Amino acid sequence: MKYLVANFNIQSVGDSDQQTICDLLCATLGEVGFESFAETENGIDAYIQEELFDKNTFKQALEDFDLPQVELSYDIKNVEDKDWNEAWENEGFAPIEIGDLCVIYDAKHSIPENLHPQMNIGIDAKLAFGTGNHETTRMVISQLFELDLKGKRVLDCGCGTGILGIVASKLGAKDVVGYDIDEWSVENTKHNADINHVSNIEVFHGDSRVLSHVSGVFNVVVANINRNILMADIHHFKDVMTPNGILILSGFYEEDIPVLLEEAEKHGLHCVQQTTENRWACLVLS
Predict the structure, then answer these.
(1) What is the C-alpha to C-alpha distance for residues 73 and 71, in angstroms, rounded to an integer?
(2) For the packed helices 18-30 and 55-64, what is the interaxial angle rounded to 10 degrees?
(3) In the chain, pLDDT over 90 holds for what percent of residues?
(4) How many Å apart are CA 37 and CA 39, to the nearest integer?
(5) I need a surface site. Which of 57, 167, 176, 218 has the fewest CB within 10 A?
(6) Which residue spans within 201-258 are E strands per DSSP?
(7) Distance CA 181, CA 164 (A)
(8) pTM for the full model?
């Protein structure tokens, strides 16, 4: 998967708060497809899949981002797949605890002996997203632990490393289906399922259109993707859910909750729970 990075330099005068400006800019960019952000000394770096980047939409969003006494400058560059992956592969990550429920650890290392959660999952760390480092991944995993998944069918939309499907399987799901537009993610999901001794996960390469090739319906659907894709695909999710099915959505900010709920209600879905962490949000719909 090819990514672009927009390096933003933010200059403000007066009483403008730099952190607030960064937060507002991230929210604006998230609305046009940017999915990952890193703070820098002078602003932020924002990442977007190359195929999702629309130059005109991007420029219009920046024109609408009109804060007094704030000047933005930026440049856009390609991010090489090799650099994007190898940094994480070489660095790895420290064990991530999700309460007393689950510990996600770097599969290249052993889990610390002093941790005693209900579940241990090893992930071969080649990308940051999907290790449990991100708030949205942790929130979705916490929600899965609140459900009775024994004998249920689970769909993981945008499976990444496969972490959510692996958790669902270990919680008793009868079978799990995942898909991702990134061919590397498809292979990584299979790999991580193998090293966690999970054999009931089937993975497809593509976007939500692959669902037309999947038989049956699902008791639980999880989708940890950016807001724009969720808005476009929520009707596809509904179409493959059982009548009393559960849909767990994350990958978006608190500010996005109203528009997502409005779209969900158009398709007969209503909110039964919502959680937030550091401005990221998670919705549970039925």
Answers:
(1) 7
(2) 140
(3) 49
(4) 7
(5) 57
(6) 201-205, 218-224, 241-253
(7) 16
(8) 0.74
- 97-102 contacts at long range (C-beta below 8 A, 24 or more positions apart): 98/132, 98/138, 98/141, 98/142, 99/142, 101/141, 101/142, 101/145, 102/132, 102/141, 102/145, 102/167
Considering only CA atoms, which of 222, 224, 168, 220 is closest in space to residue 193?
168
CA 55, CA 119: separation in Å to the nearest integer? 44
For the record, the structure tokens of 126 come out as: 């080649």
Place of tokens 């939500």: 208
pLDDT digits (tens, 9 = 90+) for 63-95: 888 777 788 899 999 886 554 455 555 656 777
Q: In what order do the strands lie in the sheet with 201-205?
A: 201-205, 175-180, 153-157, 218-224, 241-253, 280-285, 271-277
- What's the rounded Cα separation, in Å, for the pair 132 and 157? 16
d(CA 153, CA 161): 19
CA distances to 22, 59, 70, 212, 259 from 65, rounded to whole Å, are: 11, 10, 10, 39, 19
Q: Provide the token pair at 101.
A: 């429920």
How long is the chain? 286
